[in-house]
Amino acid sequence: MTSRTDSTEENVNMEKYWRTRDFKTSARLHLQHWLFQSTLGFVLIPSIREALANGRTTPLRVADLGCGNGAWLFECANLLPPSAQLYGFDIQPVHFPAATNIPPNVKLMERDVLDAKLPDDLVGSFDVVHIRAFGSLIRNSDCGPVLRAVERLLRPAGWLQWEEADTSAMTASAGRDDGARSCNMLLSVIKAGGRANGTTFDWFATVGDQVAAANFNYTNVVKFPLKSEQYKAWTEDYLLVYEEVAQMVPKEKDVPGAPLTREKYEGMFDQVVKETNEGAVIHSQHLIVIVGQKAA
Ligand SMILES: C[S@@+](CC[C@H](N)C(=O)[O-])C[C@H]1O[C@@H](n2cnc3c(N)ncnc32)[C@H](O)[C@@H]1O
């Protein structure tokens, strides 16, 4: 017999999420990019910038895994010397800007970064590998596949900078009692959908140890609290995701009597929007930056 929770989980397939996108997804990623930048106050964390400034003999090489629309890479290109070579890899190139509109030292490439078959001239060649908002690729709290990809690309003593919203700390709240009821319900549905795909958020607690175990001899995990005046902007960013998730939920006619259907999800989403219009907010409380230096 299938329990109510099991049926709900089976009905939301987050894995399909990254396959169905349009310009709104890229706009959302731009909003998220500027929210990250405003919260962190840096493109490259000062400890990495300082390390890079010392004793270079070859052009700097930077890779961004799952680069989306390239927003982070373009800002990074602005702060590095023009000799730096920047590469963005994404499994889905639909959000890449036109090649004529990007700096000449930035290359965007369609690649599955979890696939070991990366061009030989790139393997072991990067001074910095950057990842941001890649949490949906972590299955069963195992960061191994992502860290192996990073490790393969870094040169000895190269640096990892990995930024995430701490989705283990997602919260919904409102100024008045019960003002975020539907928001909390929606968070539970999203969590259940993630669990069905092996996406749990407890890896945040062990990521430092996992990096250390993956041939990195320096690791540091730093938390950056969100600014409360930006909770509304973060809420809007998450609402855009949750609105898209509706497309992943089957309609009532396809799963008659299921505890979660597209129609029920959309009804709940309308209530969520109403609550947020009245001041409820949904956010991750803080960002996490994971820094690692590969063994020399
Ligand atoms: C949440 S978006 C983040 C985009 C970008 N890092 C940012 O912060 O704006 C995740 C990105 O990872 C990409 N992605 C997912 N799986 C991937 C894989 N196996 N290899 C490369 N890119 C992948 C998606 O296509 C999407 O662009």
UniProtKB/TrEMBL annotation:
This is Methyltransferase domain-containing protein. Pfam families: Methyltransf_25. InterPro entries: Methyltransf_25 (IPR041698), SAM-dependent_MTases_sf (IPR029063). It comes from the Eukaryota. It comes from Lithohypha guttulata. Residues 62-158 form the Methyltransferase domain. Gene3D superfamilies: Vaccinia Virus protein VP39.
